[in-house]
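Supplementary Methods S3. Complex input for the heme C-bound model.
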Amino acid sequence: MKTLTTLIIAVVIALLGIVSYAYSGLYDVSASSPHSGVLDWLLSTTSHASIERRASEIEVPELDNDDLVLAGINDFNSMCTGCHGAPGKDPEAMGQGLNPPAPDLAEEAAELTPAELFWVTKNGIRMTGMPAWGATHGDDSIWPVVAFMTRLPELDEAAYQELLASAAGQGHHASDAADAEHSHEESDEAADNAAHDHDEPHEHGAAAEPETAPEASEEHDHSTHEHNR
Ligand code: HEC
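Predicted complex, serialized as structure tokens:
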């Protein structure tokens, strides 16, 4: 009985300690200071185990499909590279200030299974900068991005740009700048550009040109997007 009383008192003191620490303002929440070693281990272990468990229930469709990959690269390029970067492309300022940092997916995609890539892309990772794309995108527009990510580890900068050029007009982010009626015309134009670019394979600046169309307007009116690719 005495041990039990001591235990209860110890637990109450510990809880009071945690609550006063929370109110004290002593904990540094800044994104510019790294997590302590213990917290870092705890968070990443919890996160990996959680992803692995939940992804194990996902049924993966056939992903080894060039059309799917082409549809995925445009969406990857407009939705993911700002934080994660791409072959030959650093993350933007926003991505460089994240803590935990957004990892280079060209390396990470080789470590994760397609089901895990899908789960993370759809659901995001709480308390990190990784958004849940499933909040605004159906599974049908997330699988192409996953299909693309399975190829990403093999791509160098030139191969990435070449694939991006040949994907002009594909994926739901291909025509962000245009409304639904004009998107077809724009796609043809972009495809023409891509065809010309193949004449000069080493001109990366030119090969990347079709990508300026989706990036020109970052207005994401998802109500007009087609998500049923
Ligand atoms: C606003 C920044 C941001 C954007 C945009 C973003 N991510 Fe992330 N992502 C992160 C961060 C930060 C992490 C690391 C989270 C962590 O450490 O647990 C992450 C982690 C991931 C991981 C897990 C990597 C691993 O090794 O566990 C995958 C997969 C991923 N992101 C895919 C994507 C895809 C696909 C897109 C685009 C559709 C995307 N992300 C867009 C910030 C971002």
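The two ends are 66 Å apart (CA to CA). Residues 47, 79-80, 82-84, 95, 98, 100, 102-103, 105, 108, 112, 117, 120-121, 125, 128-131, 133, 145 surround heme C (CB under 6 Å).
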